[in-house]
Amino acid sequence: MPTKLVDKKTYTQWLKTIKEQVRSSQLKATIAVNTELIQFYWELGKSIAEKQKIYNWGASIIDQLAIDLKKEFPDVEGFSRTNLYYIKQFYEFYSQGEIIQKTAGQLVKTPINKGNQRTQIVPQAVGQLQNASIVPQAVGQIPWGHHRLIIDKIKDYKQALFYLHQTIQNNWSRNVLALQIDTGLHKRQGKAINNFKLTLPKKQSELAIQTLKDPYIFDFLAFSKNASERDIELQLTQQLAKFLLELGQGFAYVGSQYPIKVGKKDYKIDLLFYHTHLRCYVVIELKAGEFEPEHTGKLNFYLSAIDTQIKHKQDNPTIGILLCRTKDNIEVEYSLRDTVKPIGVSGYKFLEKLPKNLQNNLPSVAQLEAEFKKITRVVKPKTLSKKK
Length: 388
Fold this sequence. Notes:
Layout: H1 8-28, H2 33-55, H3 60-72, H4 81-94, H5 99-104, E1 107-113, E2 118-123, H6 124-127, H7 144-153, H8 157-170, H9 174-182, H10 185-188, E3 193-194, H11 196-199, H12 202-211, E4 216-223, H13 229-238, H14 240-247, E5 251-262, E6 265-275, E7 280-290, H15 293-309, E8 319-326, H16 329-336, E9 343-352, H17 356-361, H18 365-375
Helix pairs in contact: 1-2, 2-4, 7-9
């Protein structure tokens, strides 16, 4: 039984109610597993938080609850002490204030236990917690593990909502979600300087703006400071899956060094994609150095060529993305101001290789392993001889 400060009768009745909810949830779990799990965790977290507040129960109540639930449901995962703390955090994190309610959309009343005719208000974005029979939702795309990851890494619930929506839209795995959080996607998405509002219809311009990032993080590449544009391009195409992941959903690879002919001259476009959501071709030009105003002129020329020679009637205008190692934002804005084609300019980052003179001075993997063995070598203690 929990600490003496907890009223035995109150706790026993509360535990009984939770057990009934577990059994009820298990019966309905075959219909929508993740929906039911998130709904149950939401109500359980709310119940724990409220009971602790009303009865002034301490943290030990969670420890006792974990023991009792695991004893009653030994085959059910999720009742560890650690997970119960997450469940409480889950409720407290997403129930903060009115901002989450407005940002998330609508709050829906979701039946938790039909037998008792009770309802629980849950933010939609937390798990798209609508009754699956009324509004089919990709609830299973946001598993509990994703929520735990977000709770661990994010303290601001506006940011949490951003990553929840992105997870739903892009069907991210937990590893991909962790990567996007670690690289600060919420700070980069939609931040590229562009002229889309002036060159595209409103609906398409808004989507195009959110498609771009600044900077792009190519942390799967490693180059020296003197790497050429062709070197960067080759590695990007060799690791196309990772490149497409960083570009974002909707990009379909068409080709690199894509040939076009204008007049009597032959040209090669660095990278050509088709964006399935924007319904247009996307030309990406790589620059190994600093942004120069003439770069936009060349890219504008390529966009005209693609629009004339490749674009179909049903396609939207081709978009250009200029990726530069460094850029002056004011200079970029001036360059795009009177450009008639839709262009966005972003920076990019990748891992820099150490200079050779430093590489030679660093210990090899074999040397590190040998040194580690020396440090961690276990000296067997002398056995004490028994006295006869």
